[in-house]
Design a protein that fits this description.
Elements (H helix, E strand, L loop, with lengths): L1 E4 L1 H12 L19 E7 L2 E10 L9 E9 L8 H15 L4 E7 L3 H6 L3 E2 L4 E3 L3 E9 L4
Parallel strand pairs: 4-5
Antiparallel strand pairs: 1-2, 2-3, 3-4, 5-8, 6-8, 7-8
Length: about 140
């Protein structure tokens, strides 16, 4: 089940999946505790198996209100079960209620097809984030007018 979680609760999966087991303090993102940031977790029984953080960030100039999806991670033993898609679908519904125009992310190249299946479009050439890997900027329009 998808639920809102605390910023600290995303850190173990960020470390394990996205940052090669770096200390949790090194997995904190600027903006994690901003008033307009929220964090989601997919809990299976009592364990959080997938996480995502969503931060207000109007990245595409002139396109309205934007939110950035960051730090999306699913425990390796639970990939392919739909947990990540459930998080994004929950976030989309929530953000649409607040009249958000788009959701975007820097998607790892290896995850681009996952985002495309959920309706995101690629908006950039592939680029390298040093020490993290290759990515694409991807965008999902939420404005359903």
């Amino acid at each position: 089940m998808v639920k809102f979680i605390l910023p600290e609760e995303v850190l173990p999966l960020r470390s394990l999946v996205l940052r090669n087991n770096k200390p949790l303090i090194e997995c904190v993102f600027e903006g994690d505790k901003n008033y307009d940031t929220f964090h989601l977790g997919y809990a299976l029984k009592t364990q959080i198996r997938s996480v995502a953080s969503l931060m207000r960030n109007d990245f595409f100039e002139g396109d309205g209100i934007g939110y950035q999806l960051r730090g999306m991670a699913t425990h390796p033993d639970f990939g392919g079960k739909g947990f990540g898609a459930a998080l994004i679908n929950f976030a989309v519904e929530y953000l649409q209620e607040y009249k958000t125009d788009y959701l975007w992310c820097n998607a790892r190249s290896t995850a681009a097809s996952f985002y495309e299946k959920l309706g995101f479009i690629n908006t950039s050439p592939e680029f390298d984030i040093p020490g993290i890997g290759f990515h694409y900027e991807m965008k999902l329009n939420l404005n359903t007018k």
